[in-house]
Design a protein that fits this description.
Rossmann fold, alpha/beta, homodimer, Arc Repressor Mutant, subunit A, 2 domains, 3-stranded antiparallel sheet, 9 helices, 259 residues, 7-stranded parallel sheet, DNA-binding
Chain lengths: 259, 259
DNA sequence: ATACAAAAATAACATATTATAACATTATTG
DNA sequence: CAATAATGTTATAATATGTTATTTTTGTAT
């Protein structure tokens, strides 16, 4: 076998140069090393086969680290401040050792960010967004519900998700809502999510509904139940007194947090 | 804007510029990169297909989306060419309308890339990597198994994953192996994956084992069964005649693809 | 609304560029 | 000096780009 042959040296050099971020085309490299284009092609193919670089028609790039992106249509996340305050309040109810469900939604996503540094926690979630936030948290074990991955949506739904929920019983669940009627009715923009939301409440000892006050008095496509099924409703201090009174008629405990 | 750029570089640059909020029309971009309008149209269509931008008549906008990254320790994958050839061979067995399972592994990941443009297909997978590749494919419905998300690993395993598998019965399954003994024994580097692999074979009418020839004659931590349980074993032409003869003694159909 | 003109996007084809395959040639090694 | 690997040469294939004609969208005036 050839020992440190010239070709091997050249390939290493090419590899280093490319990884250093320099942009080359084949003929430039050929001139630089004083060999034919074909030789460079062969070098690049070898390096690619070894997984060091990625070739494109007319170019070379360093092989990207394997990372997988899930892109999702971003719902305009308004009221960030309120959502963050609500999440902070919700955090108070979580004790070390808890098993919890974090549902889909932007408010619950805020809660996930706060859980990153938590220790000794098991989180079950239908949201890939939540899972991606918690994937590296040393103290948090994440269980992803299975299910159908809808295009442009970061949530797992369907029969599978519901069946998987049946396998668990948790201490606490945190869920949002796209709308909350003045009679306490909870709404989702998506029917499939509504079904999962219902199920989640049945698999948790206590459910907290997290929603900023702007959602109150709004309805949406799918009703999934009422506030009275929940342990409490956490919202921000922009809620009007009238609406608060209305909602309290339903017997729901309402927790207000200042923003 | 002086010289011509490599297509891939140009597309990346365009994508970055648009995401940076700069608004461009096609002819401006064409001038900037010194290419024809048509080329820019093609670039933009490609970027739109990948879900990075949104085109409007006469303009371009950044796609409003959240990106969630799942980062995993990047095993750099060797023998890319062999893996790709094997995946292409496997593709021949998939018919429109099929329901299939794509297991974890780098060879099966190659197969996932080839399935992107397939129409009318249902893919069930325990691999977030596979799911991320197929998330935008119009013709492919993706079902993610649930389960525990291990840190630094893109695969869902555990009781949940196994239970979810029980909910399905598919036409075909494609799985890799970290090692294949000369007696046909199949090995995984991870015990949890081994269990899921076993289960997968039971939920598919036919299972194809995909593995480049370098894995033959190697063992690893966990045995998960034997080749004889599979419909066929697809590998590359670098397999030696002796080893092929050995493996054929097990009664396994071996499909060789040239690289 | 309807018709029309202007702008933009697409389709179809032609051209140019880049990559691969097959074979010939040259080094290199044991 | 044979055997093997590396390189070069040429022909062919694949891909990207450019050009032009046609269709779609958009805006405007009727």
């Amino acid at each position: 076998m050839a020992q440190k042959s010239i070709s091997h040296e050249r390939q290493n050099a090419i590899c280093r140069m490319i990884k250093a971020g320099e942009v080359f085309d084949v003929s430039r490299l050929a001139k630089k090393f004083n060999v034919s284009d074909m030789t460079i092609h062969r070098d690049l193919n070898k390096l690619q086969n070894q997984g060091h670089i990625t070739r494109t028609h007319g170019g070379v790039m360093p092989a990207e680290r394997m990372e997988f992106e899930f892109d999702f249509a971003a719902r305009r996340s308004a009221n960030k401040k309120a959502k963050n305050a609500i999440a902070k309040k919700a955090l108070e109810f979580i004790k070390p050792g808890s098993k919890i469900i974090i549902d889909t939604g932007t408010t619950t996503l805020e809660l996930a960010y706060l859980l990153k540094d938590f220790s000794d926690l098991t989180v079950i979630t239908p949201s890939l967004a939540v899972a991606s936030i918690l994937q590296f948290s040393a103290g948090v074990q994440t269980v992803l519900l299975g299910g159908i991955l809808r295009k442009g949506s970061p949530d797992l739904t369907g029969v599978v998700a519901e069946k998987v929920l049946d396998m668990f019983m948790v201490d606490l669940a945190f869920q949002g809502a796209d709308g909350i009627g003045l009679n306490g009715e909870l709404f989702n923009a998506d029917m499939r999510i509504a079904k999962v939301d219902q199920k989640i409440r049945r698999r948790a000892q206590k459910t907290y509904i997290l929603s900023d006050s702007s959602k109150i008095g709004r309805t949406d496509l799918a009703s999934n139940g009422t506030l009275s099924e929940a342990e409490a409703f956490i919202t921000d201090s922009n809620i009007t007194k009238e609406r608060m009174a209305e909602l309290e008629k339903t017997g729901t405990k309402i927790i207000i947090c200042k923003i």
